[in-house]
Amino acid sequence: MRKIYSAFICILLFSCTPKIHYVGQAAPSTKKNVDVYISEVSIKRNYELIGQGYLNVWAAHSKPDKIQKLAQETAMKKGADAVIITDYFIANIGQSISSTYKIDSVGKGIITTGNTTISPISSSGFRIFFLKYYD
Predict the structure, then answer these.
(1) What H or E segment, with its residue span, contains residue 108?
(2) What does each of the 135 residues of the chain score in pLDDT, given as a tens digit?
(3) DSSP state of 13
(4) DSSP labels for 43-80?
(5) CB within 8 A of 134, min separation 6: which ones?
(6) What is the distance between the alpha carbons of residues 132 and 135, in angstroms, rounded to a whole number?
(7) Distances (CA, A) of 67 to 62, 72, 110, 115, 122
(8) I want to staple 80 with a disulfide (CB 3.0 to 4.6 A). Which of 21, 58, 75, 126 is the partner?
């Protein structure tokens, strides 16, 4: 029984860790430092975009420094020289409507009460682009 709980806890912990799903070209892995940028304007070298990273659901709520470290590790594995990490926030992408109804009998009558809540939905996260320098 103890082994089952241990396995369950391990699966739970590892499934909640942030991961970057990489899509793009791969070059030989590199051991050098990966440059990190937050804007294309600050890049002074010629580069090409070789890939993009998508975060799993749990990673979207991780600390930015953890995302940066993970992006650098992925860049080294995929042979990228730099990464651009930008964050985004979309204030209103729709509405969430939640309704609750309650039916109760009082005396000889029936009373129906209801509550509807409409609230905006927002979205936020990180965009990660992997770059390869060429000169």
Answers:
(1) none
(2) 666 656 556 555 555 577 888 999 988 888 788 999 998 898 999 999 999 998 876 655 677 888 889 999 999 999 999 999 887 666 666 666 777 777 766 666 666 677 777 777 666 678 899 999 987
(3) H
(4) --S-EEEEEEEEE-TTGGGS-HHHHHHHHHHHHHHHT-
(5) 46, 47, 48
(6) 10
(7) 7, 9, 55, 40, 21
(8) 75
- Name residues whose C-beta falls within 8 Å of residue 113's C-beta, 6 or more positions apart in sequence: 101, 102, 104
Structure tokens at 15: 């499934």
What pLDDT sits at residue 19? 83
Phi, psi dihedrals of residue 44, rounded to the nearest 5°: -100, 0
Both tokens of 63, joined, read: 């600390």
Token pair recorded at residue 44: 């002074």
Q: Which SS3 state, helix, strand or coil, does residue 11 take? A: helix
pLDDT of residue 76: 93
| C-alpha–C-alpha distance, residues 37 and 48, integer Å | 14
